[in-house]
Amino acid sequence: MDALTLSRAQFGFTIAFHYIFPPLSIGLGLCLVAFEGFYLSTGKKLYLEIARFYTRIFGLIFAMGVATGIVMEFQFGTNWSSYSRFVGDVFGSALAAEGIFAFFLESGFLGLLLFGWDRIKPGTHFFATLMVCLGAHFSAIWIVVANSWQQTPAGYHLVGQPGGAIRAEVTDFWQVIFNPSTLDRLWHVFMGGWQAGSFAVLSVSAYFLLKKKNIEFAQTALKIALVIAAVASLLQLFSGHESAKVVSFTQPAKLAAYEGHYTTGPAPLYLFGWVDEKNSQTHGVSIPGLLSYLVTGSTDAPVTGLDAFTPDKRPPINFVFQTYHAMVAIGMTLIAVAWFGLFLWWRGLLWKTRWFLWVLVFSVLLPQAANQLGWFSAEVGRQPYIVYNLMKTSDALSKTVKAGEILTSIILFGFIYLLLGVLFIYLLNDKIQHGLHMKEEKGHRA
Amino acid sequence: MNFDWQTLWFVLVGILFMGYALLDGFDLGVGALHLLVKTDTERRIFINSIGPIWDGNEVWLVTGGGALFAAFPEAYATVFSGFYLAFMLLLVALIFRAVAIEFRSKQPMKWWRQFWDVSFSVSSIVSSLLIGIAMGNLVWGIPLGADHEYAGTFLGLLKPYPLLLGFTTLALFTMHGSIFIVLKTEGALQKKLKGWVKNTMIFFILCYVITTLATLIFIPRMLTTLQQQPFLFIVPVFNVLAIANIPRNISRGRGWGAFLSSCATLFFLMALLGIGLYPNMVFSNPAPENSLTIYNAASSVATLKIMSLMAAIGLPLILSYTVSIYWVFRGKVKLDSHSY
Questions:
Q1: B245: how many CB neighbours lie within 10 A of its CB?
Q2: Mutate: best of B16, B20, B106, partner A, most A CBs <10 A
Q3: Is the dihedral of CA B150, B152, B154, B158 positive or negative?
Q4: Among A120, A313, A383, B153, which residue carries the largest CB count within 10 Å?
Q5: Closest chain A CA to residue B76
Q6: Distance (Å, rounded) from C-alpha B8 to C-alpha A196?
Q7: Banded model confidence at residue B71, pLDDT cuts 50, 70, 90
Q8: Complex-level ipTM beyond the 0.90 threshold
Q9: Is B338 within the bounds of a domain?
Q10: Chain B contact set for A68 (CB, 8 A)
Q11: A347-378, pLDDT tens digit by residue?
Q12: Would residue B177 count as lying in a domain?
């Protein structure tokens, strides 16, 4: 395998593993704020127990996020140094801003969140929780700014350098930040995070209820998480719609790949299907004119098809089609699950409907899958470019790094992440099983 | 020496890495010494002495990396791709270190704790060495091509001088960590640790003297800026005074005085490094004409100005919460139900 394939594989696999954790931090952070907020306003000890229990889980998730996140900060330089030289002037400042405005806030207050329960007043502790939650959101802001600039570059010009190289330099920083796709994608990422966090709480709570453990504890947490899940899932539908609309005019090749839309003209929306890339055909069940309607408001308006792009400027179509459709299908399922849950709660049936509680137990995997699939379709859909229409991914590599070195690091990270993944699941399970009654245990077990 | 935006950012990136050395330096040092205490309680005290703060300390490195990317993308690209395998090793060490702290006390099994104790300590030692070796290479110079790409090999990074700096950094962090852990402990454990401080101090001073001599003999260019700006000679002078102040404070039993002197030592050493390198970011050896300086490696002035605004807003915030969090967790380590 060549350095390009290996470097893409390495980036894809390290970021995918990393991205299990940040959405959980975002969403669980919000849940923690809610739990602790209820404790402060009602003074009921139960809310405090819930907050403490999920704080311990949050600590584990956060540590995994930090450990796997350092890799990302360095990887642009190690594996993509030509890219770094080209975009550093624009892209680097977003990463630096993430450090300055998000990471310090997050990890600083995390210490108080985890270890400060008995050292600071409840109000101060709540403030620390709020800051950690904000920090997680800020972090997403800067990463989405940086990535959106790769999708829809704005606020820059190209400048020749003394050595003959060309690079992008900032002309208008606000345009860099609020480039055409930033806001919709940011909202999409936030909601994905809220879903990840709230469905995690739903899953744990439903499990307790099925095992008839910690009943009141589980019911209270479940109700709060269900409201967050229902709101986030519905908002996610709108943010997804808005995002796709932006893609339709900023990255038409990507939208065409999302829907396997070959011929410019009125476009159907596929519920599911298969793209035959050899014969440039898409097979499946579709609703005629719906894609046209969704992006333009009229069923017979033309939508740019893949025929407007020569094959070397198209992303891998079936891959993008499938990941995108799977993400949308999961998104719809999450709306159904959350709102059906609300319905059962309203009818007073929620605690008795055991099959639905089982659905909730496993529902934790769905937002995770959707988040991953969404990123795969967004990033692979941008190919063959690393910065849309400006720089090809194949020109972005580090010139000095050899394929063998990359392979070595992939094997290294592969082994370590496998180990970490297994241990994470093991410890997470242990915390869920025993976490509520872990007080003072460590000393005795030591 | 003109004071311009590039110089400002050279200083600011330097401050971020200095913050990292000062803060993560002691928790890496605590890690390096970790296996030398044997009982579970002692090891938990070690880990919990840095428990609430190590994560924030490491952010200085991440932000330093981000700031380097933003302000000097050419230097970031050259160094990170040129030191590929070394940085991969550093990443592995930092990953293991982070999860070792988090995982260690979560299970009671002896083998489990032993495994993470070893991981924590080895990764702390390896991180310190690699950071020192990377700095050593910047001082010694690395071969760069006309396109600013690294033209050497992985083994080429392991020359004697960079290795020497690796050990000096390890010694420095270990001393810094041992002084810190004395502040966080009490009773018999503290008494034992006080004995260690002397050893780490001797180890560091020995390394320091050798490194200084080696630099003066083999890399006279590190003195160029000092010779041009004689007032800067106060930096090496203060550096020596700070080092001398450590044993003085220790012999009088002033733990805090020793810790602050150790911080000052790190501060002045990093300042010396910056003064020595200036105006180079990555010195090319051989072919010095290919060196990356703060001018040919920098982002546009427009970007540096935007970043300066961010730093002006961000740094006071960062300092205020760093100080308040250290304040909350001041005092001796007390193990409780929230501890690691």
A1: 19
A2: B106
A3: negative
A4: A383
A5: A77
A6: 42
A7: very high
A8: no
A9: no
A10: 95
A11: 999 999 999 999 999 999 999 999 999 999 99
A12: yes
